[in-house]
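Good morning,

Both structures are done.
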Amino acid sequence: METKNNVGVNPLVQARTEALENQEFSLRPLGKLWGMDVFTWYNASCENIASTIAAFPFPVIWFSTAETITQMLKHDAELMKSIQWLGQYNTASMQIPQQVARVIPLVTSTENLSDSLTLLRHNKQEKFALLFTTSGEGWKTYKQQFEDFVSINK
């Protein structure tokens, strides 16, 4: 009988490393910002985003990329109507159907995340949930920029 020993691989250390890596890609609370509960989710599926938005007990502000918003429209356009502020931050051209945009109280679209965060600063909403999602190319840069903004403004 032959046995193999994985010398130097501690299963607890390996499990902890994997958990930390996966934590970055799960819903993460960042605490309060101007009376809003702030959450981030990186590279989330539309199914996860939709179920999260539906579960929030407060009105929702959702900041995301044009690509993710387009995917969500295909996945669950009705859910989009429950959002109080839809903020697209990576292109100034919002391409959502008029019938959806008409029922969202605030729809904004900016060339860059910095401009969207400036809008957020000037339109603070207490007792709201702010969900920030990003994916695709440049997601790490968006992640860092958003988390720095929240950290500085707490």
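Second structure follows.
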Amino acid sequence: MNQRGTKADWPEHGGQGLVLLQRLGLAGTEPRLDLSASLNPLGPPDWLADWLKDSLERARHYPDPGHPAAYAALAAELGVGADRLLLTNGGAEAIHLVTSAYRGGRALIVEPTFGEYARACALNGIAVERYELNPEGAPLDIERLTSRLDASADKVDLIFLCRPNNPTGACMAREDVVTLLEAARRRGALVVVDEAFVDFADPGMSLTALVDQGLPLILLRSLTKFYALAGLRLGYLVASASCCRRLQRHQPAWSVNGLASALVPALLADTDFASRTRDWVMAERAYLPLALGRLGLVALPTQANFVLFRPPGAPSRAKGEGLVRHLARDGVLVRHTHTFAGLDGAWVRVALQQRQGNQLLIRRLEEWRDSPQAERWGSGA
């Protein structure tokens, strides 16, 4: 295999540690710390194991397709009508429901961002235009974006925006989102904002309040990242009642499993877990980017539970791969960026951990900085 390979050679998502180690020629290395998947390191709530044991009987039956308890809990939590919600089999299903409903249309994707938007578009015959952000963290130029939308000769049906953005952690200003929504309404487009990581952001960052203002907006949400339940696949979307009905028609029967649905009220009721998680993320979001910067690394500010950074000097794919490999040799797994448009593997994304895990990452980076290999790191050594 070519040492550098192609994008297809690299795992598409985080949490694929064994695939990453094999790609790096390090099969057999024991993963010690997985920073590639952006999940809550506090783990699921302590009561979950007993809850699952007590609820196992639910697995024998088909789930209630109306999921009344889950919808009631979400509606109360968000302050929206239950008819503005659609429970989904993880955030990924929500993305595919939207693209299924607009099959054969045209989409504009703000990048670099989560690759599933483009993949879902491709599966549904949706032509994709790309609006590329500056990967160095410069804010989105809303005037330039809306001017492009207004001047486009081809009708755009969907605009995909991730907020906070994966992988940069940036959060587009609320007033800029409103400006984009107004431009989209003029053009008959729908803005799809992925808020999968918004629960880790500063309070009040969600756009939920905009849904009832008649704007062309769909919010995609996830419960599995905040509660560290990626295997249960639990998400939902927030949109107008008519939009929710339209998207639900594209959803397979019994898409959301009964255990996941029944778990929603209990998760939302655990305010202590939510408080502890927010205390943790605020502390580590302040600590890690600053610690990375002190090492001379270029680290972007973040509103999410992950940090995007790169080695010093000019952006270099070889340096980025060298860093991924250096850390992986010791079992520290990070998210490569070969599959993020415009980053080309030069950057690395790491999920925030509890302080001990973040300090381990810093020590491994210090070892690289102080090693003889640092001088020739640009070769990918």
